[in-house]
C-alpha cells in the first residue's frame, strides 16, 4: 500500500518545519548545517533557475540542502557554481545526482521536455534514483496528471524504506518574486498525501505555507483558480480606482476606504496598482518586476481551457483574458499585470501629497 511505502520517510520528516530570513540578493550566502536534514531529503536537484526558481534554490542552499542545478542560461549556472553549488549540463545529469527533484518552468511544453525529452529527467530507462519529483510550474491539470501516471511506471534504483517506485507532486506557488526571495511562498500541492507529508520540510524551506489539495492534478487546478481570481480582482480594483479619479476622489482616499470596508482585497491592500499609493510594489517602479502580463495571459488561457473541459461558465475569465491579451499586444507583456490600471484604464499616478 502507498501508506506503507512512505511510512519510514514520514517518521523522519515530522520535525523539520522551520522558517528562514530573507536571503541576500547576492550569491555570497552562508549555508546552515545539513545535520538536521534527513538523508532521503539532503540531495536535491533543481531545474529552472528563472526569477522564481533561482530564489527558491538559494533558500534551499541557505537551509542546508546539498543542491545540484541545471538551467539553459549558462550565466545563471555560472553564478550558482561560484557560490559552490554543483551544476550539470542536462536535466538527466541532475536526476542522476539527486534524491529529490524540483522543477520550476514556464509552461507545460517546457515541463514535458525537461521530464521526457532527450536528456530529460526520465531519460535513463526505467530505473530512477530520485524517489520524489516536485513540479512547481504553473501548467494545466491534464499534463500534471499524465506526468504523474508516467512517473509511477518507473522503478527506484534503490528502495527508500518500503517505497519501490518514485512519486510525483505538483506544487505550484502563490507569491511574487519578492515572496520567493523572502521564503514566504504558498505551495498548492497535489499528488500522494504521504509524499507531501514526507517532503514537507522542503516546502517550508522555501515558503510559509504548504496546502495539500488532493490527488494528481489538484494542485495545478488550485493554482489556475487562484490566478483567475487574482486577475479579476486586480481588474476590478483598477477599474474602481480609475473611475474614482475621474469622479474627483483620489486613489489614496479610495484605497483607505477599500482597506477598511467590504472592497478590501490583496489587490488593494498589498499590491496596489496605482503608482504613488504604495511602496515596494511593481506600480511604484513603473510596473517593472513582479508577475508579467504575459504570464497572466498564459494562466488565463489555462483557466479558459480548464473551464471548457469542465463545462463551466467563464464570462469574467474570458473578459480578463481579452484585457490582458490587449495589454500584451500593446507592448506591455513584460510589465507587471497591475499595469492594467495605467495602460488599459488610463489611470493616473497618485500625487504623493494626497
From TrEMBL:
Q: Report the EC code(s) recorded for this entry.
A: 1.1.1.31
What does the record give as its pathway? Amino-acid degradation; L-valine degradation
Provide this UniProt record's keywords sorted from A to Z: Branched-chain amino acid catabolism, Mitochondrion, NAD, Oxidoreductase, Transit peptide
| BP GO annotations | L-leucine metabolic process; L-valine catabolic process
Provide the GO MF annotations for this entry: 3-hydroxyisobutyrate dehydrogenase activity; NAD binding; NADP binding; protein homodimerization activity
Read off the Pfam families from this record: NAD_binding_11, NAD_binding_2
Q: What class of enzyme is it?
A: oxidoreductase
Question: Domain 3-hydroxyisobutyrate dehydrogenase-like NAD-binding, which positions?
Answer: 217-343
Q: Predominant location of this chain? A: mitochondrion
The cellular location(s) given in this protein's UniProt record come to: Mitochondrion
GO CC annotation terms, alphabetical? mitochondrion
Q: Which domain of life is it from?
A: Eukaryota
Q: Indicate the segments forming the 6-phosphogluconate dehydrogenase NADP-binding domain, all copies.
A: 43-214
Tell me what reaction this enzyme catalyses.
3-hydroxy-2-methylpropanoate + NAD(+) = 2-methyl-3-oxopropanoate + NADH + H(+)
User: PANTHER family, per this entry?
Assistant: 3-HYDROXYISOBUTYRATE DEHYDROGENASE, MITOCHONDRIAL, 3-HYDROXYISOBUTYRATE DEHYDROGENASE-RELATED
Concerning its family, UniProt says: Belongs to the HIBADH-related family. 3-hydroxyisobutyrate dehydrogenase subfamily.
The name of this protein is 3-hydroxyisobutyrate dehydrogenase
Question: Which organism is the protein's source?
Answer: Lupinus angustifolius
- Species lineage: Eukaryota, Viridiplantae, Streptophyta, Embryophyta, Tracheophyta
Amino acid at each position: 500500500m502507498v501508506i506503507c511505502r512512505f511510512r519510514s520517510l514520514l517518521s523522519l520528516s515530522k520535525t523539520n518545519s522551520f522558517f528562514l530570513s530573507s536571503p541576500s540578493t547576492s550569491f555570497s550566502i552562508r549555508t546552515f548545517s545539513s545535520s538536521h536534514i534527513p538523508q532521503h531529503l539532503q540531495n536535491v536537484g533543481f531545474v529552472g533557475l528563472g526569477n522564481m526558481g533561482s530564489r527558491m534554490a538559494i533558500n534551499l542552499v541557505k537551509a542546508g540542502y546539498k543542491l545540484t542545478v541545471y538551467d539553459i542560461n549558462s550565466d545563471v549556472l555560472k553564478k550558482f557554481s561560484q557560490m559552490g553549488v554543483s551544476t550539470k549540463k542536462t536535466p538527466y545529469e541532475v536526476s542522476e545526482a539527486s534524491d529529490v527533484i524540483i522543477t520550476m518552468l514556464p509552461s507545460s511544453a517546457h515541463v514535458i521536455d525537461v521530464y521526457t525529452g532527450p536528456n530529460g529527467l526520465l531519460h535513463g530507462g526505467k530505473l530512477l534514483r530520485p524517489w520524489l519529483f516536485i513540479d512547481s510550474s504553473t501548467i494545466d491539470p491534464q499534463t500534471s496528471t499524465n506526468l504523474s501516471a508516467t512517473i509511477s511506471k518507473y522503478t527506484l534504483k534503490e528502495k527508500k524504506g518500503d517505497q519501490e517506485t518514485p512519486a510525483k507532486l505538483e506544487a505550484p506557488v502563490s507569491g511574487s518574486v519578492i515572496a520567493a526571495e523572502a521564503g514566504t511562498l504558498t505551495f498548492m500541492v497535489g499528488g500522494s498525501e504521504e509524499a507531501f507529508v514526507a517532503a514537507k520540510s522542503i516546502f517550508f524551506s522555501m515558503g510559509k505555507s504548504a496546502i495539500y489539495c488532493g490527488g494528481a492534478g489538484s494542485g495545478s487546478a488550485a493554482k489556475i483558480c487562484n490566478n483567475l481570481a487574482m486577475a479579476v480582482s486586480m481588474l476590478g480594483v483598477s477599474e474602481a480606482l480609475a473611475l474614482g479619479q475621474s469622479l474627483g476622489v483620489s486613489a489614496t482616499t479610495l484605497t483607505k476606504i477599500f482597506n477598511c470596508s467590504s472592497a478590501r482585497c490583496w489587490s488593494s491592500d498589498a499590491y496596489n496598482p496605482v503608482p504613488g499609493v504604495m511602496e515596494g510594489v511593481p506600480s511604484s517602479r513603473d510596473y517593472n518586476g513582479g508577475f508579467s502580463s504575459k504570464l497572466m495571459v498564459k494562466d488565463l488561457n489555462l483557466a479558459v481551457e480548464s473551464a471548457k473541459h469542465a463545462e463551466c461558465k467563464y464570462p469574467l475569465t474570458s473578459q480578463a483574458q481579452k484585457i490582458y491579451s490587449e495589454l500584451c499586444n500593446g507592448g506591455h507583456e513584460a510589465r507587471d499585470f497591475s499595469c492594467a490600471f495605467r495602460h488599459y484604464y488610463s489611470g493616473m499616478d497618485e500625487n504623493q501629497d494626497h
